[in-house]
Design brief:
mainly beta, about 5% helix
């Protein structure tokens, strides 16, 4: 299956984007994904690309400077949210080496007319060679660490799951924005 945008100036979120000429996203019979699609509108960008070799099938997603409020206008029941969304995500879709890693930032996040702050979430997950799994997540708000979670799952060990959670601060003013 292969998908391409025919229009070289698609409209998304009430904004015109320019798409690369040779754009495509495809899925083959083995389940491998190939992609080369970049949509640009000024500083705003949406990009899907792949890096494939004999052992990896990595899908890269990049979102840059997307206005959350204009995107949410498409859903009439969504809450009032404002801010600028950016993300860099990579997913290795190979069965033996599945993993994901990335970051999501929302600059000037406002929820229902109340400022939450500048949000930054980093996360990673991977399958380990010894048939285990590893995860890491960190969250910061206004450049201050809020929480970090890391851990491993090793099914054959004496202690199969180890998790560590650090909560550095509780930003109560941000948590209570919906009250």
């Amino acid at each position: 299956v292969k998908f391409s945008l025919i229009s070289h100036k698609p409209i998304m979120g009430y904004r015109e984007f320019i798409v690369n000429d040779s754009n495509y996203i495809s899925l083959d019979n083995k389940g491998d994904i190939a992609a080369d699609m970049t949509l640009l509108s000024g500083e705003k960008q949406i990009s899907f690309k792949t890096k494939n070799d004999s052992t990896n099938n990595i899908l890269l997603l990049k979102l840059q400077q997307l206005d959350i409020a204009s995107i949410l206008k498409l859903w009439p029941l969504s809450p009032k949210v404002e801010g600028t969304l950016s993300a860099n995500l990579g997913v290795n879709l190979s069965a033996k080496r599945f993993g994901a890693r990335g970051s999501v930032t929302i600059d000037s996040l406002i929820y229902e007319d109340k400022r939450v702050g500048d949000l930054n979430l980093k996360a990673g997950y991977r399958m380990l060679q010894e048939e285990g799994q590893e995860v890491m997540v960190s969250l910061n708000l206004d450049k201050k660490d809020v929480a970090k979670l890391s851990g491993k799952y090793l099914p054959g060990s004496d202690v199969p799951m180890k998790l560590k959670l650090n909560i550095d601060s509780l930003p109560f003013s941000s948590i209570n924005v919906s009250l």
